[in-house]
What we know:
By secondary structure, this protein is α+β, with helices and mostly antiparallel strands. The chain contains 14 helices and 13 strands. It has two domains: 3-159 and 318-395, no CATH class; 167-258 and 263-309, no CATH class. The strands form four sheets. The protein has a six-stranded antiparallel beta sheet, sandwiched between helices. It is globular. The relative contact order is 0.21.
Amino acid sequence: MPNAAKTIRSFNAGRDPERLAMKYANLRSSPFVFLRGTCHLFYDRLPAGALFSKAPTAWLCGDAHLENFGSYKGDNRLVYFDLNDFDEAALAPVTWELARFLSSILVAGEGLCKSTDADALCRTFLDAYACALVLGKARWIERDTAGGLVRDLLDTLKARTRPAFLDRRSDRKGRRRSIRCDGKHALQATEAQRERVTRLIDNFAASQPNPGFFKVLDVARRIAGTGSLGVERYIVLIEGKGSPDANFLLDLKQALPSSLVPHLKKTKQPEWPSEAHRVVGLQRRMQAVSMAFLHPIVGRKSSYVLRGLQPSEDRVMLDVNRARLADIRGVIAEMGQLMAWAQLRSSGRQGSAIADALIDFGASAKSWRGDLLDAAHECAAQVVEDWGSYCEAYDAGLMAPPA
């Protein structure tokens, strides 16, 4: 079995076989999906050298790529566009985050842009990132401050309602709803899983001002993402403000250790009460406004990240066949700004570089930008090579999850 496939099997050992089979099939579909679903492999392959060891250390989301930016409703009820996945968050050199994002542009290929435009998009991203650092002020993107494709996305969200969202994700009988297990978004949960999730939510609800809001009505296994497929994850239907149309849907996801940490021997990570506390703590720190219901929950053997599932969650479609290259370039620039703002917002915290160090790094972009682009090309080429060997293993039937 090729080394990449063997590493992937080892990393995913113990996951839910039904959803793990979906993950393995997804990884076969394209190099970009493979990049998204194998964050651990990317950092295993990250080139050594001063570029990746001497850059300022900051809080990173750890898994920056084109589809880990999106819209969501904050706990202040406003809708934002920001980084939105912090499962891999860790304290690391900023160049690790930059290399992964640039690699995602290069690997996305012709679905994003013509191959001759990929380097230009990478430079657009780096210019926006460096300029945002130099300004030294963390900002945010909401409907009133957005432009281009992001503004179009946020404008469309105004027409999305909670009852319609509930109707898409659940079945209604009289005044009662149940989660729709359609094989696309959800699968049936076992009785033991239902009991465990209900117990976790009940314990959490007991600490809230209105425990009845979190009364569990139904539980299902959630199908979402790529890298996390097979991880213990649930959709939870709760009473909310009343059945049937004021119910709420929650996402409860097991938190696992960051894939970056094994490669950060020289960068001391803070001690967290649990992995969920790490994910939630850093998400709250790096986003301008936290997502609704974001909270760590600790069980007997695992910890979980709780958050709301919302009709306002979506991503910008970066497809050269559906949008002008100039509009795609605008979104890429905004993503560069958002990454810089997240690092500035979390600067000087628990070992991260202070804002002045990040500002200086941004001001010196000319001295490191070329080397970083070269490294991103090397990383992207490695992703494509690993995907090719993975496809051989998958096609040979070597990636079937254990029953």
